[in-house]
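Appendix B. One record, verbatim.
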Amino acid sequence: MRAIVLSEPGPVENLETRELPLPDAGPGQVRIRVEAFGLNRSELHLRLGYAEGARLPIVPGIEAVGVVDAAPGSDLEPGQQVAALMGGMGRTFDGGYAEFTTVPRAQVIPFRSELPWATLGSVPETLQTAYGSLTVGLDLRAGQTLLIRGGTSALGYATAALARDLGATVLATTRQPERLDELAAHGIDHPVLDDGAVAARVREITGDGVDAALELVGTPTLPDTLAATRVHGTVCFAGMLSNQWTVPDFYPIAYLPTGVRLTSYSGDAGSLPAAVLQDALDRIAAGTLSLGPVAVYPFDRVRDAHRDIEHNRISGKAVVVTR
């Protein structure tokens, strides 16, 4: 099979296409014929050397969609459509950047859909994080206001769609003026141009600040996001588009505004119920839900996809199709 292998951190040239043996599938494992895989900042961090505990060389990729090729002793049948995500994929064992991947059964979610594989490949990890951030990280309710810092990311678009579905009012930021109209076209109630300090503008719109905020840019904008949130509001840290995720010399009393709560979210395959995935796919197929734009690349252009993500050239999700 063809696979993309990362031998050591560095430039995109370190992502090499190789011919590898078909991976075995033992008891408790599922071998998947990969049809598409979404690209994530996680894999960019891995390539740049920011992934602690990752083994190299490795086939990257924390998610994939395809069909079951082998599942000895499992409840899954060959040919069944499945998504696989997280649980060490692309970090401690070979992941989704390949024509076949073998993963533990616990990381596999079955579904049924006639959507194109490129569309299906854009959904699992993004939906998992968006759903978990809203339900666990923020406990967002109907009628509340939500600020998404990093609105034109794949996760930003997906979270906005789910939040509006809940009945929330959504504010979302972008650093690029030409993307403000794109945010509005995808249902954002208040697109906000991000110059690094949006708290004052957010409070002009909402009055006392937002009820909830999702921080996807990282620690450089976190203080301003906290300042845009009302007393007893919640900020959930769930992304690192800036590639910065630590706060030097953290002094909580000075750093956190009085009464504003700070949480985080990081989920797994078990955090995305199969019913939630199936419902989202059904609604995408029906045209009643959109998780944002999708940029599609062939297998031999994985490096181009990485370049585009690294340099913020695309809006939404990048997906590679294997055939």
